[in-house]
Design a protein that fits this description.
Blueprint: H1 3-25, H2 29-49, H3 53-77, H4 93-113, H5 123-128, H6 131-141, H7 144-165
Helix pairs in contact: 1-2, 2-3
């Protein structure tokens, strides 16, 4: 990794981490959605650094675009004044913090014990053609049934959301 790649990696990683922290700590749900877009763009940058261009574009279109728009539509249907009673669950943040630090310490211990050679990452995809071709062949040959199952589950979830949020017209 050259020094320029390291600098770009540090900047893009900082964007992703700042976006994730803003998502978690923002008080306004609309601001949280904007921070989530910020985090998704940072993750797309990390994917671009890994030369996974298909996944980069997919990250930007599907997550930073469609998912955030869907979340914005859901937030528009919710009356946040009626949801104010959810603040009684605030003490649970401590358990999340303890578990998060435990996982972080565990990851640092594992990373210190393992020596992973990342210099050859992505080389096997060049043999198969392109990232898009390899991903498509794998997805539509070995994982066709789970792919279709996820599509059906998402369709049922979408219909459920429409039914639950539909208001009767008087």
């Amino acid at each position: 990794m050259t020094s320029m790649e390291a600098i770009i990696f540090a900047i893009v990683s900082l964007i992703a981490v700042v976006g994730a922290l803003g998502l978690v700590f923002a008080k306004n749900p609309y601001h949280s959605a904007l921070w989530m877009v910020f985090s998704f763009v940072g993750l797309a940058g990390l994917l671009a650094l890994l030369e996974a261009y298909f996944l980069t574009v997919l990250q930007l279109i599907v997550y930073a675009g469609a998912i955030v728009v869907m979340i914005a539509f859901v937030m528009m249907t919710i009356d946040f004044r009626k949801v104010g009673g959810l603040s009684k669950f605030v003490p649970q943040w401590l358990w999340g913090l303890i578990i998060s630090f435990g996982i972080l310490i565990d990851l640092f211990i594992l990373a210190s014990k393992m020596k992973i050679d990342v210099s050859q990452s992505g080389k096997n995809l060049a043999i198969a053609g392109s990232n898009t071709k390899a991903l498509g062949m794998e997805l539509f040959t070995h994982y066709l049934f789970p792919f279709e199952l996820v599509a059906i589950i998402l369709l049922v979830a979408l219909i459920g959301v429409v039914v639950l949020t539909k208001r009767e017209i008087k």
